């Protein structure tokens, strides 16, 4: 009986959690990718701040665009390392040989990436409020929900393309080239929704953009999960 139990593949969700926990444990020990993304986000905000002419553009108009552009590019740093950490010891071969669905590997990687991106957001959102003197307290809860929806969309697409690009010579260049066109609807919808939240506009004005973001997440989470096994075929 013990041999049978050990030979039984774990459920997809449990397997995904194990993969995510492994990635998060590695990142927690090294913290290199997170600190790199955090420093990049803060430096980007600083550069935009000193290049900003307050007499030409109001802070409340500039802050949403700056926030989501910085968030997108700093998130790419985490997505780049998602499969890169498996390269040194060919650990990806062990993952692919494990008795788990390959979709579970994708979901585990995506879950770890969402935690990574959310950590960057926790730093970037207050920094935007501080740099541009934008009152985020009144919209903190809906803004956090919006950030989570945006993170899901970016991670869904970015994790798939990271798996595709990791074995190429120009992985650092190929991942942004593949991902950024797909990130555009997310950044547009998130920035437009954020602008309306900060301006205190009715929720009905933000709903069309929010609906685009929800539809993107739903379609690409399913599509990328189903497509992942084909990207790792020999």
Structure, explained:
Helix 7 (140-165) runs antiparallel to helix 8, helix 7 (140-165) runs parallel beside helix 9 and helix 8 (171-198) runs antiparallel to helix 9 (203-231). The chain has nine helices and no strands. It has one domain (2-231). Helix content is 82%, strand content 0%. With 234 residues, it is mainly α. It starts with a helix and ends with a helix. The longest helix is centred in the middle third of the chain and has 31 residues, at 102-132. The radius of gyration is 19 Å and the shape is globular.
Short description:
With 234 residues, this protein is mainly α. The protein has nine helices and no strands.
Give a short account of the largest sheet: none
Mean pLDDT: 82
Give the fraction of residues assigned to helices: over 70%
What's the end-to-end separation, in Å?
A: 35 Å
Low-confidence stretches: 1-9
Q: From N to C, what is the helix and strand string?
A: HHHHHHHHH
Radius of gyration: 19 Å
Number of domains: 1
E-strand count: 0
**Shape descriptor:** globular
Strand content: under 5%
Find the structural class using helix and strand composition.
Answer: mainly alpha
- The total count of helices amounts to 9
């Amino acid at each position: 009986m013990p041999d049978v139990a050990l030979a039984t593949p774990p459920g997809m969700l449990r397997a995904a959690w194990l993969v995510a926990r492994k990635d998060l444990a590695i990142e927690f020990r090294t913290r290199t990718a997170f600190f790199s993304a955090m420093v990049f986000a803060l430096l980007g905000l600083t550069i935009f701040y000193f290049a900003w002419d307050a007499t030409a553009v109001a802070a409340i108009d500039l802050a949403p665009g700056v926030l989501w552009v910085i968030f997108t590019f700093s998130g790419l740093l985490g997505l780049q390392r998602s499969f890169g950490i498996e390269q040194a010891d060919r650990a990806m071969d062990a993952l692919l040989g494990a008795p788990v669905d390959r979709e579970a590997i994708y979901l585990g990687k995506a879950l770890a990436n969402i935690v990574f991106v959310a950590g960057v957001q926790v730093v970037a959102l207050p920094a935007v409020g501080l740099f541009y003197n934008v009152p985020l307290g009144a919209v903190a809860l809906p803004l956090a929900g919006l950030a989570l929806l945006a993170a899901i969309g970016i991670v869904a697409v970015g994790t798939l393309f990271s798996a595709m690009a990791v074995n190429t010579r120009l992985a650092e260049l190929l991942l942004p080239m593949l991902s950024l066109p797909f990130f555009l609807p997310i950044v547009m919808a998130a920035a437009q929704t954020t602008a309306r939240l900060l301006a205190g506009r009715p929720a009905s004005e933000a709903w069309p953009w929010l609906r685009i973001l929800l539809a993107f997440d739903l379609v690409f989470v399913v599509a990328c999960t189903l497509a992942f096994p084909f990207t790792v075929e020999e």
